## 1
Amino acid sequence: MQSRALADLRRIAEGLQQLRGSEVLEAVLRHDARQVKVMLGDGSMVLISATADDQGRPCLDVDVVRTFDDSERPQLEVHFD
């Protein structure tokens, strides 16, 4: 297995590991069956896509999108006179 493919597989596994135990609210399959969108109870979303690489080989891609919590970061206030 190529090192890039192995690195991608590890990245996908680590992303999905963080979601263990999350409640699945909804899963939607795209009309052409190339993508699945999974909505989770904490507001996160998982996108699982099947694509092709430059040589035409099938490729799996997983993206985890988390909601942004404003309370975790201090807000910067700027005053103009």
## 2
Amino acid sequence: MEDNLAPFLSPMARKLLVLFKQYDHDFDKLLAANPQISRAQIDQVTREVMSAMELVMGKPAPAKKWRRKAKGPANAYQIKMTLCGSKPPIWRRVVVPGDLTLEQLHQVIQMAMGWQECHLHQFEIGGETYTGIDEDYTPENGELDDSQYRLCDVIDREKTKFQYEYDFGDGWDHTMVVEKIIPAAENPKSMVCLAGKGRCPPEDCGGIWGYYRLLEILEDPSHEEHKDMMEWAGGKIDPTEFDADEVSSLLSDMRR
């Protein structure tokens, strides 16, 4: 059962479940041996597991306290994401359900752009910062847990802009724009990529400046770093490569 739950759980929840098994499913023993883990984290993971179990069993997950009670199907949000500093722009246009949590929206962005979910991330929306919270990252500046907030609860207007940052080292900043909010009554097809342009840069290439430097080196056989960078990148990179249908297929398989 735990393997079936994994796709629905945050990294923190998955790690705590492993520890839980190591301590014979005794939370008191786990907490005594791991003072860095708080009771609040245990409570959050418990709620995640309960929701995940109901999803796996085909039942609706119970609404969390912060969520408004749903009144029928959710509206859909058409969002355009653009990688800051990219020239020509690297962008994607997706349609997603408005009741996605920000953590789930993070997963959508990763799939749509082509990132590998190897680094930390955060959203900046309306003056608040939302991020993934687990034992590897404890917020110190009032950041909010992005798994606890839905898109429709933090944004309710078209043309709203917000920021998404991935990998605080390379600093991949994305400008996000809610282009449309499509009423549920129109039966919008959600979890789909409508369009996009440009290949996603490789992970850990040094940010947008490092990406364009990498492309220049790969195109110049006489460059002293050409051989090493060709080996690192696995060959030449086509910066125009993108397939919206492939992204749509990935999104359609995303389990909520």
## 3
Amino acid sequence: MTTDTNRPMTASEKVDALEEQMHRELNVRIAKSVLYQLGEIDPSRPDRGPVATGSSDPSAKALQGDDPRLQKMPPRPTLLDFFKYRWGFNSHLLQSANLAKKNGCDEKTILACLLHDIGVVGFIRSDHGYWGEQLVKPYVDEEVSWAIRAHQVLRFYPDESVGYTYPEMYIRLFGEDFKPEPYIEEEYKRALKSPYYMTARMITVNDVYAFDPNAKVNIEDFYDIIGRHFRQPEEGLGFDNSPVAHMWRTIIWPTRYL
């Protein structure tokens, strides 16, 4: 490390440079939602790494359709197509659903486990339970969509009756002194009174906080459960004029100009 005059930096100058660098950096890890990165990366093909950026030609037209850096979606996309062509890190969802299946949970709970983090793996991380609920609400029973939303809150609170403790992962990620925001606390109090409380609680019980990279779970294992409990629109997700169709279209065309 040298100065502009190419002489070696003194110890004092090195300390000053380090302090300046530290002032420019935040002492936290900043997450980026999948939607933010779609195009620059293809989460369904993580082995490809970063892909090409847009044209530097000033006469190039703005993208208004399929992004050539992403896999093309079918004209009437199903839930399984989003798993295949858009969502990365599916192993977490698959392992959680598989654990719920092994633990004897009913099919609605298994489906809720399979879909509980679709906000994280395919859309927006912050308040991912709420986004996940909205994405699936027109297509599943209220019990399933409510449980997906509520798991975001319940994971911060132990329940000894089912053996759920506060995850050690959260202590590492957020620190020992972390306390959820007041809106989370209020939502937790409301969740305790819901008839669907235990369905949401089972998501936290079967959530896989320590992922096994060697576990082999296939989405095909849940075809029957999806078929029985997810109302796939004939027009395809994003094109059925539902209140959330625009959200599915955004995942299909995340970089569309307008």
## 4
Amino acid sequence: MKYSCIAFFTLSILLDSCSNPMIINGIYGGTRTPHVFILSEDSTFKYEYHAMWYSESSGTWQKRKNTIYLNSFEQRNKMPVEYTKIENNNKKAIINIKVNIADKPEKDYICFPYVNGKSVFINPGKGSYSFDYEFPVDSISFLIAKRTFFLRGTGYKMSYDDIKTETIYPHLSVGESMDVTINLIDSLFGYKVFKDEKLEIKGGKIFFKEKNRKYKLLKK
């Protein structure tokens, strides 16, 4: 009889846990985290980051075992590039960079060039600029950083996620110049792209890991 009661009690717990699974949908955040996730019943999510700057995202979520996987609707992070080539009288390839953006200061952005798949070690500064290259340029792309201001003396800098442009293949020869126009899309800097990003479910709570730091997200 004693063992029958124990078996019945254990079975009751198992049945209760199966009949009352954790309800995933809801708003998750906390006083000690700048991250807010809104998980909806239709398997879509919204994400907001509230700190010194604002970031957001939206997409779909899927639960597999003890993990929630997030994928943003917007996966494109390559900005378009336009270019034209002309001849020059120098023994170098010359690249003129024009930062093109509407209603924003172009000097909020730094465009780091990658020539033939490799980073070019120059200090481009903010906004439009020019540089020369001693070898033919088969391909070129740019890594763009948005830097609106710096707080000197504190070690903290205002920053957004960097974004890449598409790669173009101008096959620029030595003795040719190229005018490159980078068409910046400012809204992409405030849009965080999730691609199979993981939220961990543990002990009825959800945890989000970013840059080696784990945040506990409480349901509101």
